[in-house]
Amino acid sequence: MKQLVKVWDLPTRVFHWVLVLLFAGMWFTGNQSGNWMEWHLRGGVALAALLLYRVIWGVLGSETARFSDFIKGPQAIRRYLKGELKESEQPGHNPLGGWMVVVMLLVLGTQVVTGLFSADVNAYLYDGPLASSISSELAEQMNSWHRLNFNLLLALVGLHLTAIVLYRVLKKQNLVKAMLTGYKSIEGEAPTLYFAPTVIALVTLVVACGAVYFVLTRF
Fold first, then answer.
1. Are 106 and 84 in contact, with CB atoms under 8 Å apart?
2. CA neighbor of 177 nearest in space, from 3, 1, 7
3. Comparing C-alpha atoms, which of 45, 100, 44 is closest to residue 67?
4. Contacts of residue 45, Cβ cutoff 8 Å, sequence gap at least 6
5. Is 1.20.950.20 the CATH number for 2-218?
6. What are the transmembrane regions (predicted)?
7. CB atoms within 10 A of CB 44
8. Is 124 left (phi over 0), alpha (psi -120 to 50) or beta?
9. Do 54 and 15 form a contact (C-beta atoms < 8 A)?
10. What is the pTM of this model?
11. Which residue ranges make up each domain of the chain?
12. Per-residue tens of pLDDT for the chain, all 219 residues
């Protein structure tokens, strides 16, 4: 019998949807000219803080948000692909989805780093906040990597959306609704999950923002 189980905490859900909005906003501003690039840079700084927050939350946060919960080895992946891994055993990200999270965070991190160090080769007005700390040649190269990496990001987003559709069609699981409400419909016995206090998420966010501010103002 299926039952609704709380799987995603509020901090993880807020992170996910803020990330979606930031990504969309930076995609738009990055393709505009003029003063839009100023907003693109601001979005990049916000994204840097958001990603750092998620990394820390992946260690200190709720059970299903922790890397230790969803980064699994070959055996778990094989069990999942064979249909032997019950959802009640791993109610959050499945083994493949867990590795997708890791890859997405790494590629997003690469996008942020290259953007922070990029030179504005179009208008020469909106260099990344850390571009002056490296040579102009390397800063221009960072710009090229920034543009190339974005194509990889788009491919990953497309793969992510495809997985959501397949889950909806083949497994009758609405992953979008689950990330909105925090609840999933799970077959079998409901797992007992640990949810970290929201205050820890708030402190984590302050620490992440402070760390990004320190780096941008000291280098």
1. no
2. 7
3. 100
4. 116, 129, 212, 216
5. yes
6. 12-29, 96-117, 150-170, 191-216
7. 23
8. left
9. yes
10. 0.94
11. 2-218
12. 778 899 999 999 999 999 999 999 999 999 887 889 999 999 999 999 999 999 999 999 999 999 999 999 999 999 999 989 888 888 999 999 999 999 999 999 999 999 999 999 887 789 999 999 999 999 999 999 999 999 999 999 999 999 999 989 988 889 999 999 999 988 877 788 999 999 999 999 999 999 999 999 987
Strand 183-187 versus strand 2-6 pairing type:
antiparallel
Q: How many CB atoms lie within 10 A of CB 77?
A: 16
In single-letter form, the type of residue at position 31 comes to: N
Instruction: Say what the alpha-carbon torsion angle 58, 63, 64, 68 is, to the nearest 10 degrees.
Output: 60
Where do the H-state alpha helices sit in 117-172? 136-170
